[in-house]
Design brief:
InterPro entries: BCAA_transport, Peripla_BP_I. By secondary structure, this protein is an alpha/beta fold. It has two domains: about 170 residues, Response regulator (Rossmann fold), CATH 3.40.50.2300; about 170 residues, 3-Layer(aba) Sandwich (Rossmann fold), CATH 3.40.50. About 35% of the residues lie in helices and about 15% in strands. The chain is built from 15 helices and twelve strands. A seven-stranded mixed β-sheet has the order 7-6-8-9-10-11-12, sandwiched between helices. Strands 2-1-3-4-5 form a five-stranded parallel β-sheet. Strand 3, helix 4 and strand 4 form a beta-alpha-beta unit. Helix 1 crosses helix 12, helix 3 packs parallel to helix 4 and helix 6 runs parallel beside helix 8. The N and C termini lie far apart (about 45 Å).
């Protein structure tokens, strides 16, 4: 097994939800899963080397799975590149460089081992944003490049509205990790996930409709702590509180600063009434989630916790190790995500991602790899774009047609896909979320893609 050193994920985990925390590098050792200065200019990245090594660093099972999914041809790509636009938020706070790890590792795998796109290598045309106005500049640069037919995003909190407005009806946008209202409501941008609306609503549906039976108690009262920023406020006021109340729960929510430590978290948790609630739902970033865990331990609160995948990333795992816990995550906590997990083997696509991203990192000499968070969904998005292009969709019109016809399965996401079927959030093509739980030293499947029991909150709430 390759030696794998992993650093803290910057910002958020799988589903993207709230405004980000500061990037942090722990420099600590961590095992991989069981399966193996800002600029808004749009530089063209050099296509990764397409000279496949004589001894592949990627497992044959990974190659078989990826070839079947993308419709590629085994071997390295060559010739003139296929250009794909790529926009991500990096360089400031928040920043999501792990999304670019997902993009670049996918392109590396596609170019070196899956025959590229019809034999030609992908080359990324990159643009990075840190502030709102950068989105317009990135849109202009993508429009000015006639070689770019489709634009993929990593993860953005800033600049999504001007980016999407600028490209609408001109070049389609594939959203790797939709996190903002302009993305959710976009009509010429598409995401092959339920996005943060699906995850947050899924938390509420799970807490109200399923948790009581699993825990052997009646769920009547919910406490919520959420980050005090626009995204966190929307997550609570528009997606959590109304759903929980419609399902019969009493809800108390308390905002907390993005920079809050465990002391401030303890105050917020007490103000929300988590000690007397039947369920506690933290809607916070991964760094805030660490503060939540520490505060709960200090307060000796044993209320059942249901949270998002923001809390199961490498930072939390590293913290658990530092405080001497036996499990990678807090014991008894439930986590809601896209249906599969970096920590559970058994899904061929998830296993292939875990193998490929570490193989890419080793080839690139990257020791401190951020591979959780937004990395996986961005990787998955590029795999699906490759599938479309290998099927003949190489221009904007073709991409749009392929997207609208796509019924899944989506790489590393549970449930069916149908773009345009979500009446509330038209860009979101996915519906289902998965639930997993930390039980002692084990991270286990509860209701997810592994057991075929993923929850579809859109259907359960009658929003389809």
């Amino acid at each position: 097994m390759r030696s794998k050193k992993i650093s803290f994920v910057a910002g958020l985990a799988v589903m993207g939800l709230l405004a980000g925390a500061c990037s942090e590098d722990s420099g600590s050792e961590s095992s991989a899963p069981a399966t193996e200065a800002p600029t808004s200019e749009a530089p063209t990245s050099e296509a990764p080397s397409t000279d496949a090594p004589s001894e592949s660093p990627v497992a044959q099972s990974t190659l078989d799975t990826a070839l079947a999914y993308t419709g590629g041809t085994a071997g390295a790509a060559s010739g003139d590149p296929i250009y794909i636009g790529y926009v991500n938020q990096e360089g400031g706070t928040p920043a999501f460089p792990e999304a670019s790890n997902g993009a670049r590792s996918a392109v590396w795998l596609i170019n070196n081992f899956l025959g590229g796109i019809g034999g030609r290598p992908i080359e990324l045309v990159e643009c990075f944003v840190t502030k709102e106005e950068d989105g317009q500049k990135c849109a202009q640069e993508m429009l000015a490049n006639d070689d770019v037919q489709v634009v993929v995003t990593g993860a953005m909190f800033n600049g999504t509205a001007p980016l999407l407005d600028g490209l609408k009806d001109k070049k389609p946008v594939i959203l790797g990790n939709p996190t903002t209202t302009p993305e959710f409501l976009a009509t010429d941008a598409y995401a092959f996930t339920p996005g943060s609306p699906g995850v947050v609503q899924g938390m509420s549906v799970f807490a109200a409709n399923y948790l009581g039976e699993l825990e052997g108690k009646e769920i009547k009262k919910a406490a919520v702590v959420y980050n005090d920023n626009p995204a966190g406020t929307i997550a609570f006021t528009a997606l959590t509180k109304p759903v929980l109340e419609s399902l019969g729960l009493e809800v108390t929510g308390v905002p907390v600063a993005d920079t809050a430590g465990s002391t401030e978290m303890a105050t917020a948790i007490q103000s929300a009434g988590a000690d007397t609630a039947d369920v506690f739902l933290p809607l916070v970033t991964v760094q805030s989630c660490i503060g939540i865990y520490d505060a709960i331990k200090t307060l000796e609160i044993d209320t059942t916790v249901v949270t998002t995948g923001l809390c199961f990333g490498t930072p939390m795992q590293d913290h658990m190790k530092s405080v001497g816990e036996s499990g990678k995550l807090p014991d008894g906590w439930y986590f809601v995500g896209y249906g599969f997990s970096y920590e559970i083997a058994g899904d061929p696509n998830q296993d292939a991602y875990n193998d490929a991203v570490f193989a890419w990192a080793e080839t690139e000499g990257i020791e401190d790899l951020e591979y959780t968070g937004f990395s996986g969904p961005t990787f998955a998005t590029f795999m699906t774009v490759a599938q479309f292009m290998n099927g003949g969709a190489t221009d904007g019109a073709g991409i749009r047609a392929a997207v609208k016809a796509f019924a899944g399965p989506q790489w590393m996401a549970a449930g069916d896909m149908k773009c345009g079927a979500n009446a509330t959030f038209p860009s979101l093509c996915g519906f289902s979320v998965g639930i997993q739980k930390q039980e002692g030293a084990e991270y286990v499947s509860v209701l997810d893609g592994y057991n075929g029991k993923a929850i579809n909150p859109v259907a359960e709430l009658g929003q389809g």
